[in-house]
Amino acid sequence: MDQRTFLAARADRWFRARPVRLDLLLTALTWLVLGLPGAALAGATGLLVATVTIAPLVLRRRFPVVVLCWSAAAFAGQLLLVPIPLPANAAQAIVVYTVAAHVGSPVVRMLALALAVTGCLAGGLRWSTPPDQTRNALVIGVTLAVCSVLIAVIGELVRGGRANVRELHEARRQRDRLAEQRRRMLAAAEIHDIVAHSLTVVIVQADAGGYAAGTTPSWRPADAGAVLSTIAGTARTALAEVRGVIAMLHEPESAEEPPGVAVHRDDVQRLVDAVRAAGLPVVVTGPPAWFDEVPAAVRLAVFRTVREALTNVLKHAGRDATARLTVERHGDAVRATVEDDGRGPDTTPPPGRGHGLAGLRERLDVLDGVLETGPAPDRGFRVSLTLPGVFGPDPGWLSGVPRDPRGTPDSQPGGGDR
Fold first, then answer.
1. What's the pLDDT score for residue 255?
2. Biased-composition ranges for Basic and acidic residues (predicted)?
3. Where in the sequence is the domain holding 372, given as residue range(s)?
């Protein structure tokens, strides 16, 4: 059964790729099966009429309107020359189907159907025999007309099915183009964030090193080495992250995944260490052990938000600022908060110049994430991210005390609401 289906599918694909050969084969078989009997039924005239009726089927796909007119003329000639129906009249049904299935103009399709119904009624009158000739004419004509309508309906369904398939293919191609465009835009935003953060750390370190070297008498080569080591480490990390983003762009199987390197709890800690090395004190509460168990997209969203917020603190909060990072769980949601006690929101870029947080909001939409930014309660600036539905409903966790996937309370500090 499977083998026959497979062979039928191969034959269907072969003929679809070669429609002219299919029509030639159909015409030859139709003439052999339905045309030759015309000679036995009506002599040479019947064979001639059958041949004239069937031969144009070779061109039925390329010139359906011309073949329709030819078929109508051939049928009119048959009514005049042959007093009986011929098997070759099935060719007219093929023409009606072809026009309904391949002609886009509704006027031409309705004309074909009208000609078919008219021919059926005329044939009923021509071919009916006594007694009760009128009744026989109506029965023959109406029966043939109903068959013609059904054939036209089948052609309409086939044409509509082809149109639907084309629209589906076009929609799929459009979806693929939009998905690829979205991946590239996300990758560009990710690379921008990586480069912006890394250059901020490098600039802060270089400025601090240059300032200390010029103003501090006790400046030593070891201090310069520490600054250069931080700069080199930051650059190497940024290079590895950019390579990870580019590598994911070249992997088709990652089309539904957000571009970026795999992020874990240790990566957040390394980010904090790099910011501390740049001179910004960071007080960390989290992320707890369950952070590595949440989906990769959630971990990446938290990492992006923390990186962008700490970068902004480095840029705008001032030298004496301190940042506080908290990653915790609220019910089935993950919340990450970065708050500083620096100079406050007046020093942040005015609207239209800073794109980091706006870009984060756009990328968080696919996760239903909520990003809240604004002045901190006392002083400074606050960035808070909430990602709902991360853990799914679990009544045992409604108390606010987070637990790892094995069901034991997480012992890490800041693991939940206190």
1. 45
2. 330-344
3. 283-418
Please identify, among 141, 159, 175, the residue that sits at the C-terminal boundary of a domain: 175
d(CA 289, CA 272): 17
SS3 state at 417: coil
For 39-95, write each residue's pLDDT tens digit: 888 889 989 999 999 999 999 989 999 999 999 999 999 999 998 899 999 999 999
What secondary structure does DSSP assign to 37-78, as a single string? HHHHHHHHHHHHHHHHHHGGGGGTTT-HHHHHHHHHHHHHHH
Average pLDDT over residues 325-339: 89
Q: How far apart are the C-alpha atoms of 244 and 260, rounded to whole Å?
A: 6
Between CA 99 and CA 106 the distance in angstroms is: 10
- Give me the number of domains the chain comprises: 2
Domain contains 254: no
Residue 253 in contact with residue 293, Cβ under 8 Å?
no
Percent of the chain with pLDDT over 70: 78
As a whole number of angstroms, the distance between CA 370 and CA 335 comes to 9
Between the alpha carbon of residue 389 and those of residues 187, 249, 258, 333, the distances in Å are 25, 28, 18, 5
User: Beta-strand (E) ranges in 205-332?
Assistant: 282-285, 323-330
For residue 57, the number of C-alpha atoms closer than 13 Å in the C-beta half-sphere is 28
Residue 97: what pLDDT?
Answer: 94
